[in-house]
Structure formats: C-alpha cells, structure tokens
Amino acid sequence: MLQGRIVNNISNLYFVETSNNIYECNARGKFKNAKIIPVVGDIVDIEILDEEKKQAVINEIRERKNYIKRPKLANITQLIFVLSAKMPKPDLLMLDKQLAFAEFLGIKSVIVINKIDLDEKIIDEIEKIYTDIGYKVIRTIAKESYGIEEVKKILKENISAFSGNSGVGKSTLINSIFGDNTTQEGIISSKNKKGKNTTTTIKLYKIDKDTYIADTPGFSTFDISEIETKDLAKYFVEFKRNIKDCEFVGCTHIKEQNCKIKEEVEKGNISENRYKRYIKIYEELKDKEEHKW
Questions:
Q1: How many CB atoms sit inside 10 A of residue 145's CB?
Q2: Is the bond leading into 71 cis (omega within 30 degrees of zero)?
Q3: CA distances (Å), 272 to each of 57, 120, 247, in order?
Q4: Are residues 220 and 94 in contact, defined by beta-carbon separation less than 8 angstroms?
Q5: Which pLDDT score, from 0 to 100, does residue 139 have?
Q6: Cβ atoms < 10 Å from Cβ of 124
Q7: Residues in contact with 63: Cβ distance below 8 Å, sequence separation at least 6, in sequence order
Q8: Would you call the peptide bond into 38 cis, given omega within 30 degrees of 0 as the criterion?
Q9: Phi, psi (5° rounding) for residue 290?
Q10: What is the percentage of the chain residues whose pLDDT exceeds 70?
Q11: pTM of the predicted model, to two decimals?
C-alpha cells in the first residue's frame, strides 16, 4: 500500500502523486456507497494494480484538514485571491465573500492585484483597505512577470489555490511562476470586457517539495451558504474584535442601536464600503436561509 496526493481528476480517473511516481487510479466502489468522493488535494492510500502502466486503485481517503465543496478541493493551506485593476474591474463584493469563507474554513488568505499598470489609484485604495485589516496584498503585472518573485515566496511549503473571476489573470500568473504555458489563458474579450474562462479542470501543479498551486475554475461562483448569518461578522476580521462590545447579544450589526461595529464605521476605523458589502452578504445569506426548504 502506497500513500500519495491526488493532483488531478478527470471524470472518474484520479492522478495520485507518490514520492516517486504518478499513478492513474480509480476509486473503490465503497466510496460511492458511503457517498464520499475523492477530490484533488486528498491524501489517499493506493493499491498498485499494474506497476508498468502506473495503474492503481484508491483504497482509503485520509482525514481532511479542510474541504471546499465547489470547486471540490481538500487540504488547501492558502487561498490566493486575484483581482485585476481593470478588465474586468475589481469585484470587491466577491472578494469579501471569499475572504469570509477562507476565515470560516481556517485557511490563510493573500490578495494579489494584477494588471497594476492599468489603474494605480484604485489599487492604492484597495491595498489600504485590506492591509489595514491584516491581509497581505501583492501587486503584479503577470504578463511582464512583475511581482512574481514575491508571489513565489508566499507559495513556499504551501498548497495554494488561486481564485478570481475570469480574465483577472490567474492562468497568466501561474504561467509566469513556472515560466511556461502551464495553463490555458483566461481570455478577455475586447468587445464586451467579460472574461471567458477556458480552463476546464482542477489540477495541482508541483513547484517544489510540499509546494503546490491549483488553478481552480469555478471559484468565482462558489457558494458560501455554509456560513450562518448569525456568525458572518466573526469572519470579517476587523469586526471580530469589536463584537463583544455591542450592547446586545446576537447583534446583527445592521439595525441595532449601540452597536460597536457601526460606531467604528462612523469613526472611520472600519471601511464604510466593506461594511456595506457585509450587509449585502448578510442579506443574501438571510434570503437563502429563509428559502432553504
């Protein structure tokens, strides 16, 4: 029995990397019966069926440190959220959803702002909001490999998933890290300025020992409904330290009086725009909770 990590999944085939080889594997039927599906990032035990053809079968899935339902990923240690200065414009509502979800999962977050040559003013504004609350922000021009060395440093000894809307430059960023055309490009249409995501599979790319990156189509639409509205504020890092000072237990930080978070927004200690996005996310989650059944 060998242990390895699933680095690619195409349909019902799993590609498992061990210390020496990559094996093409099927999963035992028991997983389907138990409603457990192996996913990219899983640590698994495999049984060799044909050493020459590098074929094997997955016997066991080791306990996961974390699990993301869509796109399906396990054991990620770092989420890198990629924005672009323009084309497409920064989607900060999506970013805040993703950051909250990363906090919920207990996964470290890093923000990369790509295409910084297109709009320096908006980059300064975004960088200030997020560095002030403790997130690392890296500026890049992926097509020119600008800022790539800094990205490489934060990747070391991490399993990092790159997330961002189509066209922000995730694939170009990964290509720049490897120095070749490792992934397909997310193409921007010059006519409608909307991204066209051409990446079709989730795959872990090995950079070094214990260092992988994932290209993750589908992250821009992932569902954060696992977070309950009553807990949402805990996953906004600048809110968390103020919650205990609200007058009412269970304060939603929206309509209540004597709310410490609203007070900090009024004082300028919490970004008003990020607070407004918190309200939008809260209302979206509340609506889903009310219409769940």
A1: 16
A2: yes
A3: 53, 21, 21
A4: yes
A5: 93
A6: 13
A7: none
A8: no
A9: -75, -25
A10: 89
A11: 0.83
- Amino acid sitting at position 60: E
For the chain, give the secondary structure using H, E and C: CEEEEEEEEECCEEEEECCCCEEEEEECHHHHHCCCCCCECCEEEEEEEECCCCEEEEEEECCCCCEECCCCEECCCEEEEEEECCCCCCCHHHHHHHHHHHHHHCCEEEEEEECCCCCHHHHHHHHHHHHHCCCEEEECEHHHCECHHHHHHHHCCCEEEEECCCCCCHHHHHHHHHCCCCCCCCEECCCCCCEECCCCCCEEEEEECCEEEEECCCHHHCCCCCCCHHHHHHHCHHHHCCHHHCCCCCCCCCCCCCCHHHHHHHHCCCCHHHHHHHHHHHHHHHHHHHCCC
Tens digits of residue pLDDT in 232-268? 999 999 998 899 899 888 899 998 889 999 999 999 9
Token duo for residue 23: 């094996």
